[in-house]
Amino acid sequence: RYEVIFGLRDLLASLLGSAAAFAPASTGRAATQVSETKDDLVSMAEKLNPVVKYFDPLDLTESYLWGQSQEFTIGWLRQAEIKHGRVAMAAFVGYCVQSNFHFPWAQTMGGAPFPSTDLSPPEQWDAMPFGAKLQIILFVGFLEFYSELTPGPGSETFLTHYTKGGVPGKFPTFEAVPHPVPFNLYDPLGFHKNMSDEQKEKRLRAEINNGRLAQLGIFGFLCAQTIPGSVPALSGIVKPYSGDMIGSLDFTL
């Protein structure tokens, strides 16, 4: 729940890349490979949306980020889209849930309850104690740091970086964490370890499209809250919010 609120506030600047990958969390490369050239992005885009097809109005694939190769740039953009699509999916579902429900037990050791559903999700974030906000940021920061680690010489614990031929969106297992971790972030119960290539391909397309739709959905909620009348379909459904949605995080003690 808290990760969702954090996603609403600090990860709103979603960068839409050109394609993404379905990413099993095993230590080896997935059987479903995501190609690394613009031609492959064009081909994939036609399968994702036969109407829109390939859409890159800013010509990002030709931007050669930081003076690197096109393959580097495409890998970086794919990772950005996957990550922000996943955050948006969690944020959209979390927004709907926490607008109507909250945990019945105390939020703090002092007995303070969770923010009420009388508040909108951004207002719930504003009402959270500093310690809770700090835990969220540290946890998300750890996941970000851990996902960027690459294997050292002779090691297979981590993954090849997504800008250097690795699979964008693929999260490593927690085998390298000194403290035992019972579940991995992806597929914690191992239900999908024997998934066929056809299933992986289908889920790849579903994740891309659902992530893109969720980004539009969560932005629709937030625009409706802050710009009256901007989303007529949500008028009277979402609560207005007068705070600063992106410009600052309130860490007042």
Question: What does this protein structure show overall?
Answer:
- With 253 residues, the chain is mostly helical.
- 42% of the residues lie in helices and 0% in strands.
- Range of strand content: under 5%
- Mean model confidence by pLDDT: 80
Gyration radius, in Å: 20 Å
How many individual β-strands?
0
Largest sheet: none
| Helix content, binned percent | 40-55%
Q: What is the general shape?
A: globular
- Succession of helices and strands: HHHHHH
Low-confidence parts, pLDDT < 50 over ≥5 residues?
A: 1-35
Q: Helix count?
A: 6
Structural class: mainly alpha
Distance between the termini: 21 Å
Quaternary structure of the protein: single chain
Quickly list its features:
253 residues; mainly alpha; 6 helices; 42% helix; globular; disordered N terminus
Task: Summarize the entry for a quick read.
It is built from 6 helices and no strands.
Topology, please?
Blueprint: H1 2-10, H2 38-48, H3 70-98, H4 121-127, H5 130-148, H6 197-226
